[in-house]
Amino acid sequence: MLTASSRRATRCLGQTLRGVTTAATIFPNEPSVPTVNTFPGPKSKQELASLARVYDTTTAYFLTDYYQSVGNYIADVDGNKFLDVYSQIASIPLGYSNPKLAELARSPQMVNAIVNRPALGVFPSTDYYEILSQGLLSAAPPGMDQIWTTLSGSDANECAFKAAFMHQAARKRGDASFTAEELSSVMLNQTPGAPVSTILSFSKGFHGRLFGSLSTTRSKEIHKLDIPAFDWPVAPFPQLRYPLEEFISENRAEEQRCILELTQIFETYPKDIAAVIVEPIQAEGGDNHASAWFFQQVRTLTKKYNVLMIVDEVQTGLGTGKFWAHEHWNLDMPPDMVTFSKKVQAAGFFYSGKIGRTKEGYRQFNTWCGDPSKALLAKGIIEQIKDYDLLARAAVTGRNLYDSLAEISVRFPQVSNLRGKNRATFLAFDLPSGKERDAFLVKCRHAGVNAGGSGARAVRLRPGLWFEGKHAEVMLAVFEGVLKDMYK
Ligand SMILES: O=C(O)CCC(=O)C(=O)O
Ligand SMILES: NCCCC(=O)O
C-alpha cells in the first residue's frame, strides 16, 4: 500500500531514472518486495548456535546467506529477504552480488592479487601503480595526489596518526639526525625518543578500536572500558538542532562556542598536539552534523597552530553525494590527510606532498602495507560509480527521501531531528528514546527492512548506491506501518 510520501518519492525518482540503467538492469533477480516468514527462523537460530561454539555471535542480527543476497536485498539462512538500508554498517557500496564486481573477482588480475598476495612495502607488484592511479587516486580528494594503503579504517587512522607524529618531529628536527638520547630512550618507551605528543579528537567522534585509534574514539563508553588509553585532548563537537535551516543562529552560536573552546585548547593544552582528527558527519556517535563554516574554522585554526588536520572519511566516503564529504565544505586549503575504508573496501589515507613519507623507510610499514585485491576492487567500485553517475543519482534519491521522511515526521512527531539534507542517502532521525529506537529497528526487520542505529537514539540509513525510488517506497511504507503500530 503506497503512502502519500512514498508515492511522492517514487514519482520523483522514477522521473530521474527514466532512460538510464537502473538497479533492475544490474540486478535482474533482485526481489521487488521483502519476504519475511518466520524471523528469526529455525535455521538461523540453529546455525548461529553452532557458530557461537567457536565464534562470538553476541551482536549478530541474523545468519546471513550472502549467496542469496542480491542488490539491495539481504537474505537470511531461512529464506527471509530484507531490504537492506544498513549495508554491512555502511560498507557495501554497490549492492549484494554485484555482477560487475563478481566479473572483476574472476579476472586473472584479481586471482593473481589474491593468490600471490605481496608484501607491498618490499615487493610491490607490477600493476600496483596502475591499480592505484586508475582507481583510488582517480577519485582522490581535491589537492591530494599521494596515497598510503592499510588494512582497515582503524589502521588507516592509526597510520595517519603515525604520519602526523613523524612529520611534526621531522619538522622540528630539521636536517639533524636522531640523537643518541632519542635512540636509547625510545627503546624504553620514554622521551625524547617516544615524545609526549597527542592527537585531538572531538566528543562523540568514532575513529576505530585499535589501541591508538580507540584513544581518539569518544562515542560510547562500552567501546573503551578496560582498555588502557592515551591521555589525549578532546574538544566539544557542536550539538546542533535540526532541521539545520530552522536553527541557523542557535547553531552558529553553538559552533562558535566549540571553536572558541578548540582555540583555548590550542592555546593552553600543556602537551604538543600533532593533529586533529574529525569526521565530516559523526556516524557511530549519532549522525551528528556540523556546518561547512565550522570545518572551515577548524582548518584555519589547525593551520594557524601548526596542527595537522586529518579528516576521517571512513564512513562518509562515497556516501554523501560526492566522493568525499569534506568536498561539501569548500575549503581554501585541503586537509592534510583523508582516511578511508568501508564503502571503498580498500583502506588507507590520501595526502599531498611528503606528509605520508619518511626518508628512512620501515617506519610506516608492515608486511602487507595494504592489499592489491582490495585496491583492485576499489578501482572497480569507482569505475562503476563513474560509469553510472551513481553519486549524483544518490544525491537525488536522498533529497526526495529526506522530503518524504520530513512528511512522515509531521504525522509522527516521535520522528524528530531528521538530518542529512543534501548529503544523499546519509540520513538519520531520532526516536524519543534508545529503547524505542531499538524496538523500531526490530519491528522493521520483522516487516522486512534492515536498518541500523547510531548514537543514543538515532535510526541511521546507509543504503548502497543502487538504492532507488522503488526501494525508498518499500522502506517508507514499512517505516510508516511500524510507526503506526508503535504510536497510534
Ligand atoms: O557503527 C559504526 O558506525 C562504526 C562501525 C565500526 O567500525 C565499529 O563499530 O568498529
Ligand atoms: N558500532 C557498531 C554498530 C553495530 C550495529 O549496531 O549494528
Automatic annotation (TrEMBL):
It catalyses: 4-aminobutanoate + 2-oxoglutarate = succinate semialdehyde + L-glutamate. GO terms for molecular function: 4-aminobutyrate:2-oxoglutarate transaminase activity; pyridoxal phosphate binding. Signal peptide: none annotated. Its EC number is 2.6.1.19. Keywords: Aminotransferase, Pyridoxal phosphate, Transferase. CDD domains: OAT_like. GO terms for biological process: gamma-aminobutyric acid catabolic process. Pfam families: Aminotran_3. Its cofactor is pyridoxal 5'-phosphate. GO terms for cellular component: mitochondrion. InterPro entries: 4NH2But_aminotransferase_euk, Aminotrans_3, PyrdxlP-dep_Trfase, PyrdxlP-dep_Trfase_major, PyrdxlP-dep_Trfase_small. Homodimer and homotetramer. Belongs to the class-III pyridoxal-phosphate-dependent aminotransferase family. NCBIfam families: GABAtrns_euk. This is 4-aminobutyrate aminotransferase. It comes from Babjeviella inositovora NRRL Y-12698.
